[in-house]
Write a structure and sequence with these properties.
homodimer, 99 residues, alpha+beta, 3-stranded antiparallel β-sheet, 3 strands, DNA-binding
DNA sequence: AATATATTTAGACGTTTGGCTAAATATCCC
DNA sequence: GGGATATTTAGCCAAACGTCTAAATATATT
């Protein structure tokens, strides 16, 4: 999993809201977009960022694409989050962010 | 606490590494900077972003400024993080990210 | 096959970000 | 006070970001 992409995905408030919406159950792109005053293409971009971070998955059903939380990765994301503040040296993390 | 600033602060890998360093105990600006191949002024900028998010606090001791984790806010940050994926509607969050 | 609907891709544009150097500020020590 | 050290502030620049519109793609309907 790409640490960096997870945190970047979470940096945008719209994307966090998308995640909260999806936490209640799967929704298609149009249903999600309705909740925002943002153009379809821009929403699509947000979906792709969340997909790149592996936080959501999409499945096509006819004309629509239904998105849902990738729950296993959400678990991992929480671990990552804790690691940011953890006293132990986490090799995986240290390596990723080494200069 | 400014939700948005916390997540933006965490979006940068160097800043996450600063937090991990500080999780082991307080350090002054110079000690932290030594760990990075980034100029002093750029490091100072990172400190100010972390301070703005209230994730760290600085105290002056002579010529040096010692930074440490703002542990209470770190707790809050974890809550925020969980809320991103929570099924319940969190009013505080929803308001912040409303379009 | 033609049309309508849902979504993504491509490309442009203004803003924000993270880096730099140079200069300013604060403290210490002689 | 004057010089050295630690850190921040100011201003610049290139790259990344979030948004948009227009065009492309995929599926459904007639």
């Amino acid at each position: 999993m790409a640490i960096d992409e997870v945190f970047k995905a979470l940096a945008d408030p719209s994307r966090r809201r998308i995640l909260r919406l999806l936490s209640k159950g799967e929704l298609n792109a149009g249903q999600i977009s309705q909740e925002f005053q943002i153009s379809g293409p821009s929403m699509s971009h947000h979906f792709s960022v969340l997909k790149a971070a592996d936080l959501i998955v999409g499945r096509r059903d006819g004309q629509q694409i239904f998105y849902s939380l990738n729950t296993t990765v959400v678990q991992d994301a929480m671990t990552l989050f804790f690691d940011v503040f953890s006293k132990e040296t986490i090799e995986e993390n240290s390596r990723d962010t080494k200069d």
